[in-house]
């Protein structure tokens, strides 16, 4: 079984929805990703926390057998994000971001992690993504996520690391922004020209669309009557997607399509509760049940 | 082959998108519906036009073998709609509506139309929908569309006619408004309790979701690189949906799921050009090709 290495944020989030609110809860792209991907293959985490990061929160990750050998603790405050959702629970408004120990952080992949076969570069400065990737000996599958902030401010660096990725995951707004077109279909095809062999465009409650050179695949979202907190849905999506590819140890179109379905299933667990609680509780059996339900949803 | 009877508007539209504009073009729910449904089964139209309605526009419908035996011309102006789309080409902003001859119109179904087996009650005053339906001898399949205006102002009448429909089509915003919930999944199930055996919730570029007592079916939209004018997409959707059910002459879950796919395919033709031009040009062969492509889109 290949190992998955993820580099990305471990954070404390303050989250507000129109219905509820949580303060100082465990968040960060790497947390959500790992909590999903650990159901598929062993996960190794590279990241940084501040002096204020509770050992009990790291223990929640360890309890799910996530290898924290690449997590360092540095002087200063941990990364913090304050976000708010409107009634539609679709896009987050970022009220405040405090990079804390993440600003100026130089990622170091431990020797024991350098043989990782599968790599997920979570949403983080593209130069940190690249410098992490360069420390992996022979990555076979590389996936990358990003956000509007880097598309706007670090486009050149982002395109450099994107060209080295096999799979790019972005949401609709990011795809449009990256390609300067409203059409998701056109954006998907444009992103493929930047180098990756596949791009998954995430559409929240509408599911996701995968583009490869040879096909377009339309994945439904798992239908939920209630969404409590959409935070981390995209990272849990990446966790299911990359997790499935690692477990299958291939990256052909069929594996990619199934992987996208695993992504939407993991996202559905993530949004059912605040913080990582939803995806933390998820287990293989529940994933398999939702995968069958997704299949039934599109069956004629 | 059962006959389809549609009652609804024949109109002149002024349409603006951020890219283009058309004035005084053939529109109206019954026009779009008929232009789609005629590919599946014979269509009979019940409606009203004013003195200003060009015979050449009626001829376009006749040229597609739509039976206009139920269309009357009355003194006054034809129904007019002025709508504008934003950059996302998703929801129309209605700038102005002029009911013209539609206000106070009393629908009369010609004797020769009263044996119609399949009925589509297009978006129109729910009392007009009901009074039309009551003139049909033994309708076997009844579908109904509506809009925010009637949900707000004529709720009681709408619920009465809805209870007599087999299939209700609404868009996401209308489903939410009708049921007072943001969740489409919950709204779909709530609408079933109002009487219909199926409800299709239209989601524009995201496709549609069908709810029946026994299943939920997730239909993709046909992926288009360019949308020129979304006007009439919902009515063309209903045309493909009702058309398929008429041709199949059944209304079980399998037929309903396939019908929804025909709906999204017909909608895709409608939005490729202004006015009815896109769906007017569509033919069975093109529909079949897009149906195969839709199937491939969700195939694992």
Brief summary of the model shown:
With 300 residues, chain A is of the alpha/beta class.
Characterization of this structure:
- The structure is a homodimer of 300-residue chains.
- With 300 residues, the first copy, chain A, is of the alpha/beta class.
- Chain A has one domain: Ribokinase (UDP-N-acetylmuramoyl-L-alanine:D-glutamate ligase, 3-Layer(aba) Sandwich), CATH 3.40.1190.20.
- Helices cover 37% and strands 25% of the residues of chain A.
- Chain A contains eleven helices and 13 strands.
- The first copy, chain A, has helices at 29-37, 55-63, 126-133, 148-153, 155-162, 172-179, 184-193, 233-248, 253-270, 277-281, 284-298; strands at 4-7, 11-16, 21-27, 43-49, 66-73, 79-85, 92-98, 118-121, 141-145, 167-171, 198-202, 208-212, 216-219.
- In chain A, the strands form two sheets. Chain A has a nine-stranded mixed beta sheet with strand order 5-4-1-8-9-10-11-12-13, with helices on both faces. Chain A has a four-stranded mixed beta sheet with strand order 3-2-6-7.
- In chain A, β2 (11-16) and β3 form a beta hairpin.
- In chain A, α1 (29-37) runs parallel beside α8 (233-248), α6 (172-179) packs across α7 and α8 packs antiparallel against α9.
- Chain A is globular and about 55 Å long.
Name the CATH homologous superfamily of chain A: Ribokinase
| Poorly predicted ranges of chain A | none
Strand content of chain A: 15-25%
Oligomer: homodimer
Q: Biggest sheet of chain A, open or closed, and with what strands and sense? A: 9 strands, mixed
User: What is the number of helical segments of chain A per DSSP (H or I, 4+ residues)?
Assistant: 11
Overall morphology of chain A: globular
Question: What is the total number of structural domains of chain A?
Answer: 1
Using the coordinates above, name the CATH class of chain A: Alpha Beta
């Amino acid at each position: 079984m290949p190992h998955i290495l993820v580099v990305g944020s471990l954070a404390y989030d303050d989250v507000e929805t129109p219905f509820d609110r949580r303060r100082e809860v465990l968040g960060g792209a790497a947390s959500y990703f790992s909590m999903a991907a650990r159901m598929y293959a062993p996960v190794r985490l590279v990241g940084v926390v501040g002096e204020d990061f509770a050992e009990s929160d790291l223990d929640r990750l360890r309890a799910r057998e996530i290898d924290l050998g690449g997590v360092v603790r540095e002087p200063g405050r941990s990364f913090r994000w304050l976000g708010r959702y409107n009634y539609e629970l679709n896009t987050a408004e970022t009220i405040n971001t405090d990079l804390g120990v993440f600003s100026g952080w130089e990622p170091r992949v431990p020797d024991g992690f350098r043989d990782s076969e599968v790599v997920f570069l979570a949403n983080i400065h593209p130069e940190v993504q690249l410098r992490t990737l360069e420390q992996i000996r022979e990555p076979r599958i590389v996936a990358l996520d990003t956000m509007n902030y880097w598309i706007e401010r670090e486009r050149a660096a982002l395109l450099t690391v994107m060209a080295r990725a096999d799979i790019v995951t972005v949401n609709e707004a990011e795809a449009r922004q990256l390609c300067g077109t409203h059409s998701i279909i056109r954006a998907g095809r444009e992103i493929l020209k930047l180098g990756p062999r596949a791009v998954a465009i995430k559409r929240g409650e509408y599911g996701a669309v995968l583009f490869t050179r040879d096909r377009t695949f339309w994945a439904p979202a798992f239908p939920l009557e209630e969404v409590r907190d959409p935070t981390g849905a995209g990272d849990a999506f990446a966790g299911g997607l990359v997790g499935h590819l690692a477990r299958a140890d291939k990256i052909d179109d069929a594996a990619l399509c199934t992987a996208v379905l695993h992504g939407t299933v993991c996202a559905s667990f993530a949004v059912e509760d605040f913080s990582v609680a939803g995806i933390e509780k998820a287990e293989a059996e529940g994933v398999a049940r939702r995968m069958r339900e997704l299949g039934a949803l599109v069956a004629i």
